[in-house]
Amino acid sequence: MTTIEENIYNLKLKLPSDVRLVAVSKTKPAGDIIEAYNTGQRYFGENRVQELLNKKDLLPEDIEWHLIGHLQSNKVKYIVPFIAMIQSIDTYKLLVTVNSEALKINRIVDCLLQIHIAIEETKFGFLMSELCENLQSCDISGLKNIRICGVMGMATFTSDTNKVKKEFGYLRNCFQSLKDCYFKSESYFKEISMGMSGDYELAVQEGSTMVRIGSLIFGER
Ligand SMILES: *Cc1c(COP(=O)(O)O)cnc(C)c1O
User: From ligand 1's centre to the CA of 41, what distance in Å?
Assistant: First the structure.
């Protein structure tokens, strides 16, 4: 077994079977992705559109690509034809753009709402107050070519596990209020994407359904 294969096996042993592993392959070459693919891994995450476009043509078609990084509206059209999930929806405008590009090619694109949970860091994402305002005042049910499947968040990068736990707990609460207020009858609104190499165990304890792990699989970047 190669190191990458071994890393994936070890990680899967630790993850509950109902938590999905998204292997974050940003900055890593196609050959590394194939090694992961050979273990049966099919979900891969990239954070830059151009890099994703360059790699995907070199790789098997049954890979499910997740976009996890900040997405500019003018790049949406390049990924909408093939992307399995856009995890980093951070404005209402972006949601509308994804919907209209998806409509053009008659596709329905799965999305997650990225929520700003790291108190001390300026990271992309909705503030919960702003998100609820959007959901109240805009007719998202009119956006027929997207499916909002849940939420995504990144905790503060710190060794303070209490703080990280709190932030993940906050994201879980956000998920629950959104579910109760706006997505009660949408069975597909069920994902809480949280947890990276350094904090995935805490994220799983706090109810993560999907972890996004890069360096623990592919090594440091
Ligand atoms: C890079 C990245 C990850 C993975 O980070 P690691 O610490 O390497 O596991 C997860 N989520 C997002 C949004 C990222 O940009």
Answer: 17
